[in-house]
Structures are given as C-alpha cells and as structure tokens.
C-alpha cells in the first residue's frame, strides 16, 4: 500500500470516528432525558429486562453487519455502564431538589 493510499484510508477512518462521536453525543442527550424521567418517577436506574433485550438486539445487529457479536456487546456494555452512572448522578441530584 502506498503512503497516499494509507493516508486516504486513515482520513476515512477519522471521518467515521467523528460521526460515531457525534452519534454518541446524541445518544447521551436522549439517555439523559430517560434518566430524568426515571428519577422523577422514582424508577430504578438499571433495567435488566431492557438490557437483556438490547443485548440480543446487539448480537443480531452484529451478525447482520458481519461483525463478531462479542465486539459489539463489549462496546455497548461500556456505553450502558456510562449511562447507568449518569442516571445514578441524575437520581441523586433529583432526590435533593
């Protein structure tokens, strides 16, 4: 592979990475709204049934797009863990208002 080919591919990767971060930011804005609703309704920050359904969905999506399901599961586990952490903060802040 020539240096220009490598550079062009890396530019494409960087564009995709920026798009992924933009989508994650949008996702976290929505999950913050979910966290506020859960806190207002005094619901648990963790929803094991939802997580199980989503895990199945992630595996199906991974297969659909030719990826290893465990890679996708690991990625979303990190995202979900951050969401749960944010929901705990929101619940604590809401409890003191």
UniProtKB/TrEMBL annotation:
Record-annotated Chorismate mutase domain positions: 1-91
Protein name: chorismate mutase
Molecular function terms, GO-annotated: chorismate mutase activity
EC assignment: 5.4.99.5
SUPFAM superfamilies registered for this protein in UniProt: Chorismate mutase II
Enzyme category, top tier: isomerase
UniProt keyword list: Isomerase
Keyword Thylakoid: no
Biological process, per Gene Ontology: chorismate metabolic process; salicylic acid biosynthetic process
Superkingdom of this protein's organism: Bacteria
């Amino acid at each position: 592979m020539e240096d220009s080919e490598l550079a062009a591919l890396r530019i494409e990767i960087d564009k995709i990475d920026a798009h992924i971060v933009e989508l994650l930011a949008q996702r976290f804005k929505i999950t913050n709204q979910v966290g506020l609703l859960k806190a207002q309704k005094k619901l648990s920050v963790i929803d094991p049934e939802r997580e199980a359904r989503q895990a199945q969905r992630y595996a199906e999506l991974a297969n659909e797009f030719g990826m290893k399901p465990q890679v996708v599961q690991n990625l979303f586990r990190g995202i979900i863990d951050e969401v749960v952490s944010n929901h705990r903060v929101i619940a604590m802040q809401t409890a003191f208002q």
